[in-house]
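SEQUENCE-TO-STRUCTURE ENTRY
===========================

Subject: a protein chain together with a token-level encoding of how that chain folds.

Sequence line: the amino acid chain in single-letter code, read from start to end.

Question of interest: how does this chain fold, as expressed in backbone structure tokens?
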Amino acid sequence: MALSACRTARVVYEAFWFIHKSCSQGASTTIYACLLPGLQDHSGAYLIHATPRPTAGCDDAAADLLWRDSKAAAGLTDAEEAAVAK
């Protein structure tokens, strides 16, 4: 049984090798964010490969539109929203 799981894991790894990262590659952005002086100016920023990227939440109009659309998709009423906000 273990051998079969090992073979399956190897096949999956070989099929998707191009999207895997090593442990050090995977941790590099987190370590960068922890150690970079001045990153506090980018509070809430989304980092990709150690580069701050803008998010929709930084734009108030886009954030409001996203909230309205999400609320409608979830079927949340104004009364339910008010109850959650308390």
Remarks:
- The chain has four helices and two strands.
